[in-house]
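lol ok so funny story. i was supposed to be doing the assay writeup but got distracted and ended up predicting the structure for this chain instead. priorities right. anyway since i did it might as well share w the group, maybe its usefull for someone
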Amino acid sequence: MEMGWSQPRPKFCDVGYTSAKVESSYRKEYEMGQQCDLSLSAARTLLPALFLILFTSHISAQDSLREFAETKIDGWTINVDVPAGAEKVVIPNFHAPMRDLKWESSKGKGKPELTPLVDKWQIKFAKSDESRTLKLELGGKPLRTEELTSIKPRPDGGFDLPAHLAHVVGKKLRYETQPWKNTVGYWVVADDYAYFILQFNKPGKFNVGILQGCGKGQGGSDATISLHGPVAADKYTSNQQPLDEASLGKVDFQVEETGHFQNFKWRHVGELSVATKGIYAIKVAPRKIAKGALMDVRAISLTPIPK
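and the output, tada:
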């Protein structure tokens, strides 16, 4: 029952008291009742909104669990289930270069388009009333970050470090798997960096080469390739895991304009020395981004220098 002046007074008013003290006490009770009314009214208004927030959060959590499309890995091919009515699907990102993306059958119309994001791949296509299957053909085993192992040396003791085996850390940097890219790219944030985990079987001195591309008018940025370690073999096994070992040596260089970010050019940029055998990291990072983006990197090479 709501409390107000039109409602019966409290019992102490039934015996005829009209003193200011009694009237003051009654008014205090009335004002408390009004405050209760306001609180109840606010609760009636806020409860539906609170329920909506909780319900939406629950749905969002459920959606996040259903974010990735159903996939089946068959060798170097990923089969992606596309439900009827869909115009895009999202799948996990893999450490492997893309060779082709096509529909399994004639039910799929139009060319699907894959876009690498920071931590997943998005595929867009024309809508269809039928469910379909996409076939994503890769140039190697589709590895997740937790499946990466340290890169082993070539027979001559040197290393080839392809972009698809890089660990990336940052807000925008990613591995771009498309055949015409196959690069670590979207390097627009100065704090973003990439690194590779290597297993050196013996110490030595190495020439450092980089296969880099840089768009017209975008050259002149400063970058560093550095050696870090030793590192534990199983330490770096998750996405966006920062490299925290101290630098043991570095090569500073300036990015060269090549006319297009996918016009790649091999460059010798310096030398690095490894004092003892073990597992180390090679890190690539900006020192200064001169224009819109640093560069694209398709590969790094370490070539032993004879004693």
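Confidence is low (pLDDT under 50) at residues 1-30, 50-65. The radius of gyration is 32 Å.
back to the writeup now i swear
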